[in-house]
Amino acid sequence: MTCFLVLHGLGGSTSGHWQEWLTKELKKRGERVWFPQFPQWDHPVRESWINCLEETIDEIPKDEPLVVVTHSLGCILWIHYASQHNARKVDRVIMVCPPSEHLDNPEIQNFFPLPKDKASLPSIAKKTLLILSTNDRFLPQEEMKQYFDFHVPCLIFPEQGHINIQSGYGPWPWILRFCLEDAAYWPCTTV
Asked: Which listed residue, 43, 93, 154, 177, has the most CB atoms within 10 A of its CB?
């Protein structure tokens, strides 16, 4: 059975956010889902979040496929986790709307800079996909290149904001289908 790990960003992903919706929908279908709630949502500390992530991953059966779905700061958390020598290898990673490392937001500055080793992200998973939006206020188009350097496939959605509640992403059937039926949708090339 495939396991799912959902990683939220700054401020959590509750109150109707697509990650909360996705977690419930996957569970309704009998899937095993972990949706850890990281400490201090609004003032996150990277080491605390990494520790919580490692504890959660230790709970997930190691002999079962694992799909990781991240949003915003959760993407950055995953990148840091992936750069560790003892990181667990997973089947698929879907990273939605990571913020720019040049973002002027003091709450997230301890998550940057990004790791220098750009090979760790594609090597930790059999498949990794980055999903970006052309008008994400947290990652301007001219700054997307910082994630292209990781050499993983990328889908760029036109004008979808930060792909969160404010941009209309509560229920998101596409991401649910993508999680459950990836073979039909997965891009086969890298940027």
From this structure: 93
Residue 168 lies in a domain: yes
Structural domain total, the chain = 1
Residue pair 154/191 in contact by the 8 Å Cβ criterion: yes
Q: Per-residue pLDDT averaged across 137-157, rounded?
A: 93
CA distances from 48 to 41, 51, 70 (A): 11, 5, 17
Tell me the pTM: 0.93
Strands (E), the chain: 3-7, 32-34, 66-71, 90-96, 125-133, 154-157
Q: Provide the CB-side half-sphere exposure for 190 (13 A, CA).
A: 12
What single DSSP character describes residue 110?
G
User: Is residue 112 situated within a structural domain?
Assistant: yes
135: containing domain: 3-184
CA distances from 153 to 106, 131, 150 (A): 30, 9, 9
